Amino acid sequence: MRIALAIVRTDHHIESIHPPLGLIALRSRLLEAGASEVAILDGFLPTEIASHELSEEYDLVGLQVHALNASTSVELGRTIRSLGCPVVLGGPEISISSDLSWCRGAFDLAVRHHVSLQVAEAILQLPNHALSVPRTLEGEQRLTGRISYGGLIFDEYWRRAAHLGMPRKHAPIITHLGCSFRDRTRGGCSFCVDLGLKTSLRCSDSLESEVAELAELGVTHFHCVGENLAQGIALKLRRSIQPPPLSTWSFFARASEIHPVGIAGLKSFGLEEIRLGAESGDPHILQIAAKGETLESIQQAIEVLHSQRIKTTVSFVLGLPGESHKSLEKTCNLAQRWTDQYDLLKVSCSLISPMAGSELGRSIGMSPGCYGPTARKKFLATHTSIGVPEIEAAASRIERTCRTLARIESNASAPWQSLETQDESMTAATRIA
Ligand code: SF4
User: What average pLDDT score do residues 184-188 get?
Assistant: First the structure.
């Protein structure tokens, strides 16, 4: 059984330095369930995927659907099915959809949340037992199995990183799932999508063997894609696994989870970088975003990280409710002050993306599968006194005056970078298995 798993390229597509961990995890379950070959196609155009599917004769195509590629993926799903090949849809936009009528005709099976071994076995039945009506299967809330990295080729991602001056071998890993802040507040920050996942550290045996497998592939930098590394999780992680000697690690964290003792402990584990959300340089907007942080708490976290020489990335979301010329000015000034003051700090900007499943998305009646420029415009008109051109101008000013994270290094859904600074050599689609 030969399967292709794909992320469709769209206008918003980022040629990331980060391989797609969601598809790597899914590939692991399908191989475990008996698939003979599972290819991963990252960032291909819909036409390229359709022609791969034809020329390579895959028995099944899986598409990862997120807010930014939903309409393109649905269109592609319908095309592939019309060619007689079964299609499975999964990914965040499917997981938040209780009603899948927006992707009617585009799938044989839709899978919510993580694919369990049982669901993987059901997927493998599809080519031989065509379904008369499409079905939806519930996967697991928790990612239980081991992720297998064997047979993957990360060279293209390493080439992109080397191009940015990072000539090391890196890979994505997920040490924990969920966000303790979201658990505590029952919803988290207003712009964040809540998939209903409770915070937990992954099984230490799985983690240990994933780290060992990556180390064998030559990986020395581990990029954790888990949200908000809370102190309790960090402590458990340090007790559960032994990182390879001289390996380096980066994590997302909230400012209020940054304390000198915890950071010193993580430093001995190999901590190299922390990615913090500051969201806005305007305290009022930060408060409306329900971030649970203040500019003071974020500055304090930056101080701790700076004093222990940890690289820090601070991200801002431009266009949050209440955004105005004045607040954009405050954000630009703060970004500049922080990069002037802290030599290891970079900033990154993203444009507001009111996702279905987030409080902000719900505020303008967003439903799954309908994200696009019209939704963003409607959102800005409803909640702010500025438009896209003003946001672009502020982002462009930050890029000119501050040390910024390259677009391809970002994990944000809509990182901003001017067209002039995007690198042509970064536009290759990637097949990693
Ligand atoms: S933005 Fe970060 S801190 Fe806020 S709810 Fe989402 S994961 Fe948690």
Answer: 90
Q: What is the pLDDT of residues 280-321, one digit of tens each?
A: 999 999 999 999 999 999 999 999 999 999 999 999 999 999
Residue 12's pLDDT band, with cuts at 50, 70 and 90, is low
- Find residue 177's DSSP bridge partners: 200
DSSP symbols for 277-334: EEE-S-HHHHHHTT-S--HHHHHHHHHHHHHTT-EEEEEEEET-TT--HHHHHHHHHH
192 lines ligand 1 (CB under 6 A): yes
Calpha distance 76→325 (Å, rounded):
40
Reported as half-sphere exposure (CB side, CA atoms, 13 A), residue 46 has a value of 15
Instruction: Residue 230: count other Cβ atoms within 10 Å of its Cβ.
Output: 22
pLDDT above 90: percentage of residues in the chain: 75
- Give the chain's domains with CATH numbers: 2-138 (3.40.50.2300), 165-405 (3.20.20.70)
SS3 content of the chain, % helix, strand, coil (to 5): 40, 20, 40
Q: Best substitution site from 174, 176, 182 to test ligand 1's pocket, by max atoms within 8 Å of Cβ? A: 182
Kindly tell me the burial class for residue 152, based on how many C-beta atoms sit within 10 Å of its own C-beta (0-12, 13-18, 19 or more). Answer: middle
Ligand 1: residue whose CA is nearest its atom 6: 192
Nearest atom in ligand 1 to the alpha carbon of residue 227 is 7
Please say if the pLDDT value at position 417 is more than 60: no
Strands 200-201 and 176-177 come out as antiparallel
Atom 4 of ligand 1, residue of closest alpha carbon: 189
Q: Give the pLDDT mean for 72-96.
A: 93
pLDDT at res. 406? 81
pLDDT at 132: 83
Mutate to test the pocket of ligand 1, among 180, 185, 189 (most ligand atoms within 8 A of CB): 189
